[in-house]
Recover the amino acids of this structure.
């Protein structure tokens, strides 16, 4: 990914982006796939194996702030992307949040369809997958954090 988002220009920009997301005051248009990936990288560094609950809460709070329905949050996709980013960061440890977010976004910021390598059906539309973690049926990935609700 050659053109990185503005919030990856320096640590202060990343911190401001995350603060706006968590407030929640981030404009809906800025909550892109790359933004999800950057947030996941930082949250994995912040929360380690306890990452899922604060991620879930932050996304749900943001979704509500922009008028999204309660059903907008997708548990399986959240767990899957946290696991994908965690694997990448485990393979290449990063010294700072900015380095981790930049690395993760460079790998996956444009890859919003990666879930299709793991699921042989339309997991996005699955009500079961939206509500709780559903194991992949094509390619396995093991989340190293609690996935229960």
């Amino acid at each position: 990914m050659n053109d990185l988002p503005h919030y990856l220009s320096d640590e202060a920009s990343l911190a401001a982006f995350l603060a706006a997301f968590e407030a929640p005051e981030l404009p809906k248009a800025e909550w892109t796939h790359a933004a999800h990936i950057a947030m996941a990288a930082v949250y994995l560094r912040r929360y380690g194996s306890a990452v899922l609950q604060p991620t879930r809460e932050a996304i749900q709070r943001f979704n509500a702030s922009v008028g999204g329905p309660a059903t907008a949050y997708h548990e399986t996709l959240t767990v899957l992307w946290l696991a994908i980013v965690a694997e990448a960061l485990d393979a290449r440890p990063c010294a700072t949040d900015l380095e981790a977010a930049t690395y993760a976004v460079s790998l996956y910021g444009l890859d919003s369809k990666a879930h299709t390598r793991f699921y042989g059906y339309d997991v996005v539309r699955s009500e079961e997958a939206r509500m709780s973690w559903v194991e992949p049926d094509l390619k396995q990935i093991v989340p190293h954090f609690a996935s229960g609700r």
